[in-house]
Amino acid sequence: MSALEIRNVRKTFGTTEVLKDISLAIDSGEFLILVGPSGCGKSTLMNAIAGLEPVTAGEMLIGGEDVTWRTPAERDIAMVFQSYALYPSMTVRQNIVFGLEVRKVPKAEREEAVARVAELLQITPLLDRKPSQLSGGQRQRVAMGRALAREPQIYLFDEPLSNLDAKLRVEMRTEIKKLHQRLGTTIVYVTHDQIEAMTLADRIAVMRDGRILQLGTPDEVYNDPADIFVAGFMGSPSMNFIRATLAGQPGSYRLSVDVGGEQPLVLPWPAERETPALVRHVGEPVTLGLRPEHFSEEDARLGDRIEGTLLNTTTTVVEPTGADLLLRVALGESEITVRLGPKSRAVPGEPIALRVDMSRAVLFEPETESRLA
Amino acid sequence: MSQTDSPPRRGANAGRHSLSGTLERVLPRLVVAPSFAVALFFVYGYMIWTFVLSLTGSRMLPQYDFVGFEQYARLFANERWNVAATNLVIFGGLFIVICLILGLVLAILLDQRIRQEGVLRTIYLYPMALSLIVTGVVWRWILNPGLGIQSLVRGWGFEDFTFDWLVDPDMAIYALVIAAVWQASGFVMALFLAGLRSIDDSLFKAAALDGASLPRVYWRIVIPCLRPVVFSAVMILAHIAIKSFDLVMALTGGGPGYATDLPATFMYAHTFTRGQIGLGSASAIMMLCGVLAILVPYLYSELRGSKHG
Per-residue pLDDT tens for A224-239? Predict the structure, then answer.
């Protein structure tokens, strides 16, 4: 049985349709992340799950029960907010027990719950402090503690790490993942940060304009994107989209890319990645998607030959990130981003020889932006 | 500012400075000096003079025959002063409490994302834009038994209806409270509304998920957040209450008899119309003590707060 099931949910504000026919189901213990650019409806969907925004149409089931018209309090969910939303006049302890107190849980059980979550989140020394006396990371822990104390069926996280600095964000990310692995809780998590989505999720729902474009595991969403938007949104630096023309026939398709010279760059399309749809696009322009890590440097020093088509081009910018080297290289009129190992000796303005690994390339239809192969 | 911002070695070269440099340093002081001198003389100078007069036996005109604290002794033995002081406690207490409650309720109701909020807010805030004299005159007519509410309701046929607080010596002070509350509660509402608007919306969401009912959310979470606003509101209202003079003059003139006298009207009557400058001065100094008793803790907490903040 699904912990949460959303059936054909729509939400309109006036004449604008914010959620357009959303359906999804989450298994118990699953970590689902809703990701998308701002204004894609992910927060509205979360508020709808929480019961804070009534839906215009559709049904919502939690643990098999129809909760579409129940109040937030009756849904057995807890939420962690971006701004933490700790009650400022209460101590940490009071913040954690408030929900239990309202539900008339006996005092002994409340004390037990506080002790349990405080130990779990290592906030025991902070219990008698006010939220204003806590740092951002501590407030985040308290907010999670408040959610955990009630032991609800579903946890909702609304961009919980966005107000933290970069280092703390990574730490808390790991902590949330650990907590999920330990407690096996069902979590719906909203973020606009695709790295957060990739690292935390069991499944990712990529949203745009009130629709779920793709729902799948991080691996599926990353390596097998449904369309250009998903492909471009997931991954940093973003996927390179290259205009190409499809040629050849089933079994030996080729892509030719205009690189400014007399001869176009010809990239053979791997036979195992062919789809029936390709036949109709022979001779037509297509969009080739190649992630920066699909390129590697042809380096005599390395000795061993790397598979892939040779691409001779010029480096324009070198951005070392420490772990890798990000290169901008010319490709005809435009530029593409390439990720190389830190040992690369690429120099701006110098020619460079690259190998293109076509086995993980993706093809899109330029007009509809949908996936071809 | 120019001095503190300049590097230290500029001070060493000050002698060689051009005229414009000197002007730049002196000008701010020159500009501030007149108003500073005026404030020093007319506020603090007269404060001291009033204190000196309160120690004299002055009657029609200031005299300097010092009698020690005899005027204060006379003041506290004075029946009219005691009425005025009691009135201040009743008037001030009721005025502050009712304004706070009414202002908070109005602010909470107005904060429910209602339509035409801007219009309503302006309507409630407008009484504050009126002079207290105007408020006094308006309410004198409304509360006048022969013209206002009483005559209106009697005109509807309720012949026994009586609402004559304004002319009842025991109730007139409450009539004063009505008018003052009408004037100031909109302002308190605006203060509270600003406070409510600064509260993070997700607090309400969190409380809704925790299962708290709306009254509980306000009582346990929202109102405690408004404590600083309550504090400022009490300060402002307490000042208005202690300084109340024009409202009393316009509404009741201190009457019936001296039933609605407040310290300010007492001071005015004795100093300027009854030829008791010494006694009036003593009452003025007592009012100053009252204001200071509120102001000093306030300033103390404010200054301490800013140091920590």
Answer: 999 999 999 998 889 9
